[in-house]
Design a protein that fits this description.
Length: 260
């Protein structure tokens, strides 16, 4: 795939440092080893090697979704790629579904969910803070090259948007998912999956309490994801010294039939 104007480009230097650039004709990328004209990259194949004015060799690649999320500008705390993988698989997100997500936050999870549901699906992403919503809209636009027609960015309280949407899946990354559980109990399709993501144990307990009180959820599972990367250089084969420690706890629950 060749680079075009407007594309995201990830530049990797010889020390494996990574930089994210939005390619604009006439633009320049500056770093400690000089600069590089964006026009040098536009038209090249992804995976090409380019050279900065200071003689540094950089590998130019289209970023993967995970690269984009780890390097994009953040407002609210994002969901990390390690957790997004589980949200998609255990939250059972698939093309063509109608999904309600909140809060939009920085838009990281929105990019992932929007890419999966695709043009045959519908993603209603709700955020109650105007500043976060505006920031997320820019990020989503940057990632997709525009806001896809199937992603609806909505400002408000997510609890007010579930019943009218009748989603197949609900994904909640907000501090009080337990307050939204009654609305999910009413609006989620029978058999649908609710996924919640919270950073602390009391929030996890309150989420389970809310599911118990609603009385219409089954097959509940809680988990956290620990990911350890490895260094493999010659005979130095060992885990990396640093890893992302704690992020959050995921809960998955299925809505029973016969509930409202
Ligand atoms: C941790 S951030 C979400 C980050 C997002 N998932 C991402 O990956 O970029 C939580 C967001 O939820 C929003 N929020 C909290 N309660 C909400 C509610 N009831 N309805 C809609 N948004 C809510 C907050 O304003 C905040 O922006």
């Amino acid at each position: 795939m060749k680079f075009s104007e407007g594309d995201q480009c990830m530049l990797i230097d010889q020390k494996d440092r990574k930089y994210l650039v939005s390619l604009q004709s006439g633009g320049q990328f500056h770093f400690h080893r000089g600069f590089l004209a964006h026009d040098t990259i536009i038209g090249l194949d992804s995976g090409s090697i380019v050279e900065s004015s200071g003689g540094a060799k950089l590998t130019a690649l289209h970023p993967r979704l995970a690269d984009f999320i780890l390097r994009m500008k953040r407002g609210a705390q994002v969901v990390y790629p390690k957790d997004i993988g589980h949200i998609i698989v255990w939250g059972d997100i698939a093309p063509g579904q109608t999904v309600v997500e909140a809060g939009t936050g920085s838009g990281a999870l929105t990019c992932a969910l929007g890419r999966i549901v695709g043009s045959t699906g519908r993603l209603v992403s709700v955020e109650r803070r105007d500043d976060h919503a505006a920031h997320a809209a820019k990020t989503i636009e940057r990632f997709f090259g525009g806001i896809p027609s199937w992603i609806e960015l909505t400002i408000g309280d997510v609890a007010d948007h579930i019943e009218e949407t009748r989603p197949d899946r609900v994904v909640l990354d907000l501090p009080e998912p337990f307050e939204v559980v009654p609305a999910v109990a009413t609006g989620l399709q029978p058999g649908g999956v609710l996924t919640t993501y919270v950073p602390t144990v009391p929030q996890l307990q309150q989420t389970q309490d809310a599911l118990d009180q609603a009385g219409c959820f089954a097959d509940v599972m809680h988990l956290e994801v620990m990911q350890r990367t490895w260094n493999v250089t010659g005979r130095s084969v060992r885990p990396d010294h640093r890893m992302v420690g704690h992020t959050g706890f995921l809960t998955f629950a299925r809505k029973l039939a016969g509930a409202p």
